[in-house]
Amino acid sequence: MTIQGIHHVQITVPPGxxxxxxxxxxxxxxxxxxxxxxxxxxxxxxxxxxGDRQVHVGxxxxxxxxxxxxxxxxxxxxxxxxxxxxxxxxxxxxxxxxISGFSRLECRDPFGNRIEFIQPLPVA
Length: 124
Prior knowledge:
This protein is an alpha/beta fold. The protein contains three helices and eight strands.
């Protein structure tokens, strides 16, 4: 018996913020929305495809998202291009603590959820 991988990650946004979240995750980050199962659709929120994994965006009140270290780390192949794209979208970027073998940066989505972008460095 083993854990085989990660199927999905769930983040939350406040009630009434779904369209802003769809814009940020769909337009700014370029993720593709996928259909939720009918029994879950009435709960609000939406699901996104990220490669062969999923990010589920749910609706939740009373969360101090800006105070948590919880986050999603998206692996990218051009961190500089992501830095530029986020900057052009008006997203404040925070430099991450350096980790050997990786370049990375962080930001917060419009709701305070922490997001990391990480790129493996070429082996010298």
